[in-house]
Amino acid sequence: MKTPVSLSTYLWFLVGLVLSLVGTLNGTCLHDSIQPIDVSQKTLHYATFNAKRHSRFAGGVPSRGRRTVEDFEPIRISPFFIEFENVEKNVQSLLKKVVGRAISKISQLLAVVPALNPVLLARTACQTKWSDGPNKHKCSGSERNYGGEYCLETVKIPDEHLEGFSLWSRTEKEPVKIFHQPGEGVNDTDYLLYVSVKDSKNCWLKDKHVIAFAGYCQTDQHGRPISGVINFCPNQLDVSKDSMFMVAIHELLHAMGFSKRLFKKFESCKPTVEDSELPCIALNDEKSDKGGSKKLILPSVVKKARQHFDCHTNNKYGVLMETKDGEVQSHWDPRMMESSIMVPTVGLPHQTVLDPITLAVFEDSGWYKVNYSAADKFLWGKGEGCLFGQLDTCVNDTKYFCSGSQEGCHFLHRDKATCQSGMFLEPCGVYQSKADNRCSIPVKNSPKDRGEMFSHRSRCFMANITKDSSASYDTQGMCYEFRCRGKRIYDIRVKSSRWTSCPMGKSISIPGYHGVVHCPEILGILCTKSNRETSTRQPVSSPDLYSMSTAMVYPLPFLINIVFEDLDYHYLRQGSQMDTFRRIIINRVLELQPLDRRRLTSFRVRRGTIVSFQLLPPSSPKSGPDGKRVYSLLHEAVFAGNFSIVIPDTGRKHTATYISNMPMFEESLPTPHGDGGLSMGEMFAMGTVLVVAFVLIIIAAICFQNRCCSCNG
């Protein structure tokens, strides 16, 4: 029996669905058009860690070239929300949460040599300086109409963040006139981020969907950006929370160094750390394909790209960049790097990743040390060789590229999609999807005779099956449930059918259906946990990256979800069944991997039936292995069909069918159909029934009143 849904819940569901659909729009990035070529430079003082290295530094300021890992600590980013007075409270709250979440992610990815003193930004009020005398290099004349400092002409920098400004005579020991006293600066920070919501001509560009734009404002003496701005366009604040988060990450990476105006300032022949084994490869602007695209050739970038694409023969290998009028832009070429956070248009949140190749750019700058363990899994073009993404190869239909406008599957197979090209992809095409194309979301108008199933374990497969022998369908992307059974074996399940083995590269028939389902050779995508993860996941800190600061990094509990599709959720809710069920699960986990049972905590059971619990980090070697090891064992057992339990009262055996270490449902999405919740169609029907019933009650009341009035007459 299904739990009734209140009218208010139904309305909130519709609102959430509308917002999630609005948030699917791809945003256009304006970084290259708004970033000035020259910005102010401010000398910062950096910490030194021992006397041996101190002798190499001039005045306590370390050189940028060769450092050890111990010199680096997680970057400290201080956000300041400017001119937020006219922004609605709920929007203020949303942006502060989104920006805070983006900063948290970046701080776990990137480390810098920390600034020693409070950060004070430079003023540009001085027009002339003394060239000799006791006050050599001090200001002798000021700019006319100086009105303060602005970041990209977007926000005014507060005076408390700026150095002082005075005029000096050639010889006097005291300034002739003090215009501005020095501000207090910002303590415990390495980067000042200004966030604004201002209408701008950049927000209303023809044929462009601009959600936000960003850039850096000032750099330190080594070229590292130390301040920047992100401006969110007020006319585009109706996108979803996750979409806004991805936009914030994209823009923040621009403002911290992923910018064409900074690439040539990288010290590519000076590895970031002393133990680096990277070759000395300089930037390369040579044309790399027939379309005139150029490539970025930097040590870490080349190393990560070779590993990912499995290219070890091309001596001039590099990563293709977006190229406009023969000039490299500040984005990857999407033909080679589709789904990366730094392609020109940010895609759907669950399809966009913060990949290792993008992070390698920051390591090659010489300013950052990268925590690659916190990067997202990048699957686009994995293992496809040196020519992947080139015009010669991407015009052919493959599992990554397509032609025409046919219906199919996104390459991750979590969504149905349509083949599309565009400004940055021409003449190639890729399968692109919208938020309502997800196989995890019930679709109201899905043809009933095609056997589609929508749930958290559904994936997209090319098929033309139908129960109607008189009907005929073109092959297109369809959603069916899926599970792995081994390294090269997976099964699919169509509605009203049993699990059917789907051999890679073959086409199979489904009992009771006409037509076939095609089984793609994509086991590396389907049967890894990576395609159930998104870049919104909490990054994992690497214990050996920041050896000076590990005391500040606290291990997080490891989330585990296990699904039993044949368990009665409502039965478990009765009496003390839930406590019994919890003990059974704990004992089964301990059978697979002995560990301190006190580490298993925060049990929840949701409709489905989904068992969620957390595994606390080990407090000692005796308390068992870490969460990753335990999850790996459970993952293997579940997908091998070996994680089973027996309920004492019924004596029935129940086998887990799915496992995940990510939250199973997004808050804005409905419970997947078939998991005890109501489908979208059911909720619409319920709403219709309520409205009709309400109208009938009013009509009946009016009729009754009129009848009574005639009686009294």
For the record, give the distance between the C-alpha atoms at the N and C termini, rounded to a whole number.
49 Å
Structural class: alpha+beta
Mean pLDDT: 79
Order of neighbouring strands in the sheet with most strands: 2-13-14-12-4
CATH homology-level superfamily of the largest domain: Leishmanolysin , domain 2
CATH architecture of the largest domain: Alpha-Beta Complex
Specify the CATH class of the largest domain: Alpha Beta
Number of strands: 34
Radius of gyration: 30 Å
Shape: globular
User: Proportion of β residues?
Assistant: 15-25%
Tally of separate domains: 5
Low-confidence stretches: 1-25, 49-65, 271-282, 530-554, 665-683, 707-713
What share of residues is helical? 10-25%
Oligomeric grouping of the chains: single chain
Descriptive keywords:
713 residues; single chain; Leishmanolysin, domain 2; four-stranded antiparallel β-sheet; five-stranded mixed β-sheet; alpha+beta
Brief account:
It is built from 15 helices and 34 strands. With 713 residues, it is α+β, with helices and mostly antiparallel strands. The protein has 5 domains: 313 residues, Leishmanolysin, domain 2 (Alpha-Beta Complex), CATH 3.90.132.10; 43 residues, no CATH class; 138 residues, no CATH class; 111 residues; 31 residues.
What does this protein look like?
The chain has 713 residues and is an alpha+beta fold. The chain has five domains: 313 residues, Alpha-Beta Complex (Leishmanolysin, domain 2); 43 residues, no CATH class; 138 residues, no CATH class; 111 residues; 31 residues. The protein contains 15 helices and 34 strands. The strands form twelve sheets. Strands 2-13-14-12-4 form a five-stranded mixed sheet. The protein has a four-stranded antiparallel sheet with strand order 23-24-25-26, with no helix packed on it. A four-stranded antiparallel sheet has the order 30-31-29-34, covered by helices on one side. A hairpin with an 8-residue loop joins strand 27 and strand 28. Helix 4 crosses helix 5 and helix 7 packs antiparallel against helix 9. The radius of gyration is 30 Å and the shape is globular. The N terminus and C terminus are likely disordered.
